[in-house]
Amino acid sequence: FGRLCTAGLLSFLLFLNAPIQTFVIPHSHMDVGWVYTIQESMHAYAANVYSSVTEELSKVKERRFIAVEQEFFRLWWDTVASVTQKKQVQQLIKEGRLEFIIGGQVMHDEAVTDLDDDILQMMEGHGFLYETFGVRPQFSWHVDPFGASATTPVLFALAGFNAHLISRIDYDLKDTMQKNKKLQFVWRGSPSLKSQQEIFTHTMDQFSYCTPSYLPFSNRSGFYWNGVALFPDPPKDGIYPNMSLPVTKETVHAYAKTMVENIKQRAAWFRTNHVLWPWGCDKQFYNSSVQFNNMDPLMKYINQNSKEFGVSVQYATLSEYFQAIYQSNLTWEVRGSEDFLPYSTEPYQAWTGFYASRNVLKGVARQASSKLYAAETLFARYRISFPDGPVAKDWALDKLRALRWAVSEVQHHDGITGTESPKVADMYLQHLLQAMMGAEELLAALFLLPHNLESPSTLADVDQALEQHVIIYNPLAWNITTIVNVTVTQPSAAVFDDDGQPVPAQIQGSAHSNATYDLFIVVELGGLQYRKYLIKFSENSKAYEAKAVSFERRSAKDRAKAGRRLLPVLSECYELLFDQDTNLLHSITYLEEKRRVMITQDFWEYDANGDVKAGPISDNYIFSANGSAVRAYKAVEMEMIISGKIVTEIRQYFYREESDKDYAYSITTRVPECFGTKLPCHRLEQTYSLGPLSLNTEVVLRTSTSVKNNRTLYSDDNGYQMMKRTYRKFTNNTLARNYFPMVRTAYIEDDLSRLVLVSDRAHGVSSQTDGQLEVMLHRRLWNNLQWNLGYNLTLNDSSVVRPTLWLMLGSVSATSKLYQREAVQLQHRPVVMPIDQPRKCLPHRGSPLRSVVLPPNLHLLSLSVPGWNYCSNHSVHLNLHSQPDYDRILLRIMHLFEEGEDPELSKPVTINLKEALQGMGEVKGVEERSLTGTWDIASLQRWKWKTRTRDDNFTVTISPKEIRTFFVHFVSRNF
Ligand SMILES: *[C@@H]1O[C@H](CO)[C@@H](O)[C@H](O)[C@H]1NC(C)=O
Ligand SMILES: *[C@@H]1O[C@H](CO)[C@@H](O)[C@H](O)[C@H]1NC(C)=O
Ligand SMILES: *[C@@H]1O[C@H](CO)[C@@H](O)[C@H](O)[C@H]1NC(C)=O
After folding, report:
1. From which residue to which does the signal peptide run (predicted)?
2. Each residue of 916-936: b (16+ CB within 10 Å) or e?
3. Has residue 65 been placed in a domain?
4. CATH number of the structural domain spanning residue 35
């Protein structure tokens, strides 16, 4: 328990007699998606929120409002706001009465988002706010995400925030914290960064972000005088459903009494004499004159009788509340790097289903993010090297901005979570796919247009049927050797690099189609480099033609015979054994230590209940298993594409019934076999196919091993840090409450071995039995809960999904060096671009780009041309340049390792940015910035005073888990 310092004690004693100071914070929770599309929401209420709030705040100077989701605000600002309203907004911001909180495009989800995208969506909003108003949000308001990640407070601290606010945490935990006055604490979200990036955190009490709606004297909706938003059109007469009784002479006392009682109830849960009283809820304040015109007299009445009530009330922004807490000078308890995941609201309400809801949307969101990363890095390189090149900069920035916007939007806590209605999921997908096409156009232009106009390449005629060109780009700042697959229509081929040298390749029939072939090419690429490869199709070509061997279908009943006829697949790292009597994986030996681990993988199904009368149901949000999982198949077939050349591919098909013609699930495993090359051999690539599922099933891939993990597993928070997940027994719902989110990585381990999975999208993970790691890959549900039916949130998802996991096995110390980089490499696989018309446009021979390589423990988190028009210097930044700044490059570098994780790789790294970036151009200046770019790091003084030694101009030292952000200026090169 924290001690009170003398000043705190004094003020505490003074507070005993003072009325409770209540901060009434007007807000509207505006989901960027969920049940209604963004356009529908803008039309029905969102635009009216900002129009009417602007008008109402301008009328009375005590009134306040906090604006949270920037996407709606920007749409209003750009497409609705009049010149007068814009002037009023500028004034309100200046007076601190309209305050931007969080400042991101959305209130992002915390469980299934990746830090890349969390940073992006914040930067997108922050850049807009800073260049438009010169303001930098400093407080968060994460009132609705389903559980709280330990990465979020770290990111907010890095962005310069002074306090963080959360709400949805386990109901029993919140209860205890409330009773013990521990809802507020200082959170050290990263075990490596510790106090350096700690942040004060406020947990909302049990009333959360909505005003209590119960009024003893009325059956209406409480303090919501404007009623409930109406879709699709707002009512013509301004009369909304459920508008509460007006505050009048007759009702004011009853209202005041209800409000005061609520305030006093809440005050008892906090250590200071201040109460945060959020006034608002979902879709509120679209008719804010009614809101304020009733609240004004109510508050006046309470204040006139404040002695008697023991309460005073005032309109406030969030910063005014936190200022008061900060000034109380109390000493706070520290919370370490544990998160608040998973999240339950009631005994049978574990919000662990959404970790796996809408696998397709989760996958496309991540693909879009990596496409954006590739396009950003390549465009940044292009701008530095060819400032006058033919790719028009404003056209390019438009393409990038569209994709930044789409990727930001889907991070909403009812977006990538899969907890939205089908039409809203389609909206996100459409925005993402359209913007991805734009980014592909940009990539093609960057690859294909001659870089300067002087040297058009001359090319000999080629016969398109016999040749194909492919450009392969490595978007990471590390040199890589990897296998790339290209789909071709010819059964034999030879591959050459841009020096005309033959490249190792392998060709085989595709698993998905009889008409196409998979061509695997071993590519070696420098950091941020691309190369052109030539594929020649001919009878006597050089690529090794791999042959398929099929194994008889085996019944799951024959498991008893397992272990007698084992088929080995050997690579430089592993010996995998497949069992011919079950067609399942039997074991993997990691050769470095000659240690064998028994491993079987197959699919299991949870049977979900859809009838509310029969018990707890599963839906978009909630996983509520109706008993343990059952084996999802009766027979298995196996096919092996044997090569011994580049990869061996094992395809396993799982049939629901022994005689079924079509399989229900499949696993394709690729084992790299390139002996004696630089190709990493520890990576076993697996792609699965699932669906369409039968109704009310939730399918897991179960990896059962001899690892003695005691049901403990590790899974990541937002791809940033690993969390230890110890199995816990609960009075009820133990199965579902032991599910955890996996964004990039999950592993199980014992003293000797660790089995790691890295993922291309988020899933739910659990270890229900010793040695097991199960990943929930897909769900299809329906239920008859009225609320779910009304909003169309039953998750009847009939899609076929094809997620990818990479699997690694080894000693704890060997895998500790690998998994962070593997997770990044899976996220940022090389970009493969086949060129259809090689004659028309082809880059000149050889890549014009030199490689850019960072040390293995540093990851290039971002390299982009943000295109903001503000000056770096805060005091003059609003002297707007009318043009975006195309020459300011944003660079963000992250140390991938935790302190003590690896003897070498966990060390702080000192690099000279001028040298590290010389492959790109000549650096003339570097400015260190806050995470989202808006603060010069030297002028950033967060509320807790912190120190950091300044580095010289170009040399920086990056410590474990640090993320550092820079503006880099290059010497301009004009050709
Ligand atoms: C807390 O400390 C600050 C600065 O020392 C001081 O201005 C303020 O009055 C103190 N607040 C209380 C409640 O003692
Ligand atoms: C390469 O293989 C992956 C995994 O099977 C697949 O998703 C992808 O579409 C393939 N790429 C090409 C270009 O065929
Ligand atoms: C990366 O590859 C480039 C060639 O593409 C080579 O010049 C450079 O030395 C390599 N760097 C490292 C650190 O391996």
Report:
1. 1-22
2. bbebbbebeebbbbbbbbbbe
3. no
4. 3.40.50.11160
